[in-house]
């Protein structure tokens, strides 16, 4: 399995990576990107199974990345989990309307991450 | 002549009234233009002074943010804020380094304690001491593991506070460029000709402000 973690702060990328390993994603290749542009380039060059992205990033934000993924024929089915400090109603609605698969508000715990990931994989299994 | 009659109904400058009464339309309009221009100059000068006040406030803020308290450029202040993000990032990474190092050691120790508990020891006194110690080690390493996990999660403060600082840093950049644009605009309206400046620097702001007498 391959997971892409997108955040402009290296600390956060490392924490998410650390939590994923703790949650048992030990045989998983965890890749990192520092903004939406870098993430899109990676997504288009190699197969990825899940994207965990921040919202606020320079160059290309998380919501722009999500919309770009949904607009790309080859990537549109990609599960995207948003991990962000943005918790106002309009932004959550915007993410939902853009087709986000899960939404976690920072700061968060490993338990929350596990819950949201489980939900995403359950739904994928039901669809698949 | 409707407009001139309307003007005549208000109290006007005596010199202007004289021109109005004289029926010399051209001279009257020229005098009126001069009056309006004078009032516009006053408005633009006030705007310029406002820009100067804003600029002083920005410089004071920049000085407060600068570590040495010396009024410096906005660029310096923004650099200090970026340093804050870098330093807090380094500190968070160091903490994560410790967590990465200690967690496997704690788990290894826990496994060794479990192995000791499974062993058969014939010396009863030693066995009871070893068992007690192994149980304590097991409990401690478990608590340590959970604590390290919490510590890792808590490091997300760096991302959250860093984002806030980055927003302030970006806001200061916008204030600085808007301020320069205000100075440029008021200067141009007041009759000066200033080329649009793309690169905003302290020297540029100072030069423009003094150029327009602000």
How does this structure look, described?
The complex is a heterodimer of chains A (128) and B (214). Chain A is of the alpha/beta class and 128 residues long. Helices cover 47% and strands 18% of the residues of chain A. Chain A has five helices and five strands; from the N terminus they run βαβαβαβαβα. Chain A has a five-stranded parallel β-sheet, with helices on both faces. In chain A, α3 links the parallel β3 (50-53) and β4. In chain A, α2 packs parallel to α3. The two termini of chain A are 16 Å apart. Chain B has 214 residues and is mostly helical. Chain B has helices at 2-8, 14-22, 25-65, 74-118, 124-154, 157-189, 202-211. The A-B interface holds A 7, 9-12, 14-15, 18-19, 22, 56, 85, 106-110 and B 89, 92-93, 96, 99-100, 149, 152-160, 162-163.
Secondary structure elements and pairings:
The complex is a heterodimer of chains A (128) and B (214).
Chain A (H helix, E strand, L loop, with lengths): L1 E5 L3 H13 L6 E5 L2 H10 L4 E4 L8 H10 L8 E5 L4 H9 L4 E4 L4 H18 L1
Parallel strand pairs in A: 1-2, 1-3, 3-4, 4-5
Helix pairs in contact in A: 2-3
Chain B lengths: L1 H7 L5 H9 L2 H41 L8 H45 L5 H31 L2 H33 L12 H10 L3
Helix pairs in contact in B: 2-3, 3-4, 3-6, 4-5, 4-6, 6-7
Task: Name its key features.
heterodimer; A: 128 residues; alpha/beta; five-stranded parallel beta sheet; 47% helix; globular; B: 214 residues; mainly alpha; 7 helices; rod-shaped
Write a compact overview of the structure shown:
Chain A has 128 residues and is an alpha/beta fold. Chain A contains five helices and five strands; from the N terminus they run E-H-E-H-E-H-E-H-E-H. Chain B is mainly α and 214 residues long.
Question: Counting H and I runs of at least 4 residues, what is the number of helices of chain A?
Answer: 5
Mean pLDDT over all positions of chain B: 79
SSE ordering of chain B: HHHHHHH
Radius of gyration of chain A, whole Å: 13 Å
Query: Tally of extended strands of chain B?
Result: 0
The chain pair forming the largest interface, with residue counts per chain, is:
A-B, 17 and 18 residues
Specify the biggest β-sheet of chain A.
5 strands, parallel
Helix run count of chain B: 7
- Look at the helices and sheets of chain B and give the structural class: mainly alpha
Strand percent estimate of chain B: under 5%
Distance between the termini of chain B: 41 Å
